[in-house]
Amino acid sequence: MVRLLRWGTDLATGYKHPKLGDKGAAAEKKPFIMNERKWMIRFIFLETVAGVPGMVGGMLRHMRSLRRMQRDNGWIETLLEEAYNERMHLLTFLKMAEPGWFMKVMVLGAQGVFFNGFFISYLVSPRTCHRFVGYLEEEAVMTYTHAIADIEEGRLPAWTNMRAPDIAIRYWNMPEGHQTMRDLLLYVRADEAKHREVNHTLGNLEQKNDPNPFVSEYVDPALPHPSKGFDHTKPTGWDRKECV
User: Fold this and answer.
1) b or e along 7-45 (b: 16 or more beta carbons within 10 Å of the residue's beta carbon)?
2) Which of 29, 48, 70, 175 has the most CB atoms in a 10 Å sphere around its CB?
3) SS3 195
4) CB under 8 Å, gap of 24 or more: what pairs does 178-182 form?
């Protein structure tokens, strides 16, 4: 399912890229080398989809909490934070490009299909949905890794010294000397990697009863444990026995 969605997104955005190990002259001969415009189309479309799961999951858990008149053990806030973060990615890229009507139509169609499909799927099996999002975030990490590599290898000259938009500098509090397009993509990739960890971890938990380990307090904070930061990370997620 993840590969199918990836294929559809690649098709819609015209995204093609040499494999990570395909470098040098062999890569240069490829007819589908990405440029700045193609990358920006990719980023914008990707983020319009990426902001859906957190909002759907948070909304459904919010309604369940209201319906049952019970607390949600901290899940809602984390899911809505994820959706907000993905929207900030989109708003940042929109400061650098203005999508045309065709892109807007594609986004409308993709959002309609994905939102409703994810909504129904989350009602049936939230655990599966979190696992699915974890794998989607891995694909996003790979996408931004490719883009960063292209900048570092000089394939995107317009972005080599480009300054990140002010909205990004304020949102991530980017320090002086680290406000380039490359720095921006490093921040975005770090966010996607964190979403990957969060969703894989949530997929390992009992959906109805377990607390959110990313906002929990621990008896010994010095020991490795899930957190909102990057002090201790696990790309494949934390096992239930490690955090509950």
Assistant:
1) eebbebbebebbeeeeeeeeeeeeeeebebebbbbbbbb
2) 48
3) helix
4) 181/151, 182/148, 182/151, 182/152
Distance CA 105, CA 107 (A): 5
CA–CA separation, 94 and 151 (whole Å): 20
User: What 3-state class would DSSP assign to 214?
Assistant: coil
**CA angle, residues 121, 124, 129, in degrees to nearest 5:** 45
Instruction: State the amino acid at position 238 in one-letter form.
Output: W
Q: Are 90 and 51 in contact (CB under 8 A)?
A: yes
Q: What is the pLDDT of residues 75-109, one digit of tens each?
A: 999 999 999 999 999 999 999 999 999 999 999 99
The answer to whether 58 and 83 are in contact (CB under 8 A) is: yes
Q: Which of 16-30, 128-142, 168-182, 212-226 has the lowest mean pLDDT?
A: 16-30
Least confident of 59-68, 199-208, 221-230: 221-230
Residues 74/211, Cβ–Cβ less than 8 Å? yes
Cα separations in angstroms, 156 against 35, 47, 181: 6, 21, 10
Residue 4 predicted with pLDDT over 80: no
pTM of the complete model: 0.87
User: Model confidence at 25, in pLDDT bands (50, 70, 90)?
Assistant: very low
